[in-house]
Amino acid sequence: MNSAFAWLFDPEHWSGPSGFPARILEHLTYTGIAVLIAAAIAVPLGAVIGHTGKGTFLVAGLSNGLRALPELGLLTLLVLLTWVGLLPLVISLVILAIPPILAGTYSGVRNVDRAAVDAAHGMGMRGPTVLARVELPNALPLIIGGLRAATLQVIATATIAAYVSLGGLGRFVIDGNNAGAGSPDGYPQMAAGAIAVAVLALLMEGLLELVERLVVSPGVRNQSRARRAVRLRRRPTTDLVENPT
Amino acid sequence: MNIDWPWPWLPANTDDIAEATGEHLYLALLPVLVGLLVSIPLGWAASRWRVARGILVPLAGVLYTIPSLALITLVPLVLGTQIIDPLNVQVPLAVYTIALLVRSVSDALRAVPSEVTAAATAVGYRPLHRFLTVELPLAVPVIVAGLRVAVVSAMSLTAVGALVGIGGLGQLITEGFLRNNGVELVAAIVLIVVIALIIDALLLLVGRIATPWTRTAKGVNS
Fold it and tell me: Residue ranges of the ABC transmembrane type-1 domain (chain A) (predicted)?
């Protein structure tokens, strides 16, 4: 236990291209790229499916089918097939991140109070305007919930990047494993990397919860405060698609 | 890097594949079963006492947030197991299962209508008997839903164990990767997905059989 913390807090391991700051940055870069691409695909798609009610099967089917897919297998297969730097990693992380965002956006838009939608129609708004001005703002808590679930899954899975010779915090775990259990850079390094990944995930979770509170419109927040309080407390198995990571 | 497709590899290695599959099932399913058994009393406690709920539910949230590779790596640190002990994969899977199910079980038990429990008490059920024969069966649909997520995730998460040298089909993935053997890699992926989906379907079926009353109510889907 002590050797792991000694490794973790050794100043030598906190500088240079293979130190913790650089690895954390790599990890967050992979995560950011993947979540942004996934959001660019899944938010519009989920919004349209939720708005029109067409293609609902896609939401359920994707989330169920993809949960069984082993990320390690997908990533290694893509590396063997395409071998171009970051591309295989980004593709497999995007595939992982799409279902929760899609499900969040879909159920957010779908569950907007019908009275609000009717009122918008009554005021003369057309479909796209209703979606943009009424449904999406109201759906924001669930959309952000989906983004949060996706981000955490991607952070967890990005550790695997090290296995295919990329960076990120998984590097410490993989390198430690390769160094052998007995070596001073062996298990202590693995455990230090694992602690860093766990702390990063927990910090990110807290940060995204804060963002959710700041971004969501006060009107939506007050109106659904009770419901959201329940949802926040029961987070690990929300109605969104959340997988262990 | 180039990928090879040595198809003869497949028939020549059926024994190894079968062994890896068996190991994978043992690694993935045992923890889910243990997790289920542990989460029922914990979920019951959380449904009964506000304090227990206030501790267990946030704790489950935190444990659930910790990435699998991190948890797998940290088990030896916490429990003092060997680096390649199967427990290193099984303990995290059990933890995830418990984290997932505790809240489901507690919510499901809290959702049992009080008239039902009152009626059971009135006709003479003692608390334990009432819990096992009235409240728990009513919670089955929710528990099965959580269990399906847990088991399918466990099947795919077990593969991560291969990164720290713990077997199962994940080892065919790493081995296939190192040898550029596309057949081995794809065979492992397909087996994991197909077996996971079969178990998922079986659980759905078991859930339906165990709750015949959900089908008699019109328009209610389990």
Answer: 24-208
Q: Do B73 and A190 touch (CB under 8 A)?
A: yes
Interface contact B163-A173, CB threshold 8 A: yes
Top residue of A27, A152, A237, A238 to mutate, by most chain B CBs within 10 Å, is A237
Residue A84 buriedness (CB in 10 A; 0-12 / 13-18 / 19+): exposed
- pLDDT, tens digit (0-9, with 9 covering 90-100), for B98-139: 998 998 899 889 888 888 889 999 999 998 889 988 899 888
Chain A CB contacts of B1 below 8 Å: 79-80, 83
Residue B85 covered by a domain: yes
Reduced DSSP (H G I as helix, E B as strand, rest coil) percent helix, strand, coil of chain A, to 5: 80, 0, 20
- The superfamily (CATH) of domain A2-237 is MetI-like (1.10.3720.10)
Listed in sequence order, the residues at least 6 apart from B217 whose beta carbon sits closer than 8 Å to its beta carbon are: none
The pTM score is: 0.83
Q: What ipTM goes with this model?
A: 0.84
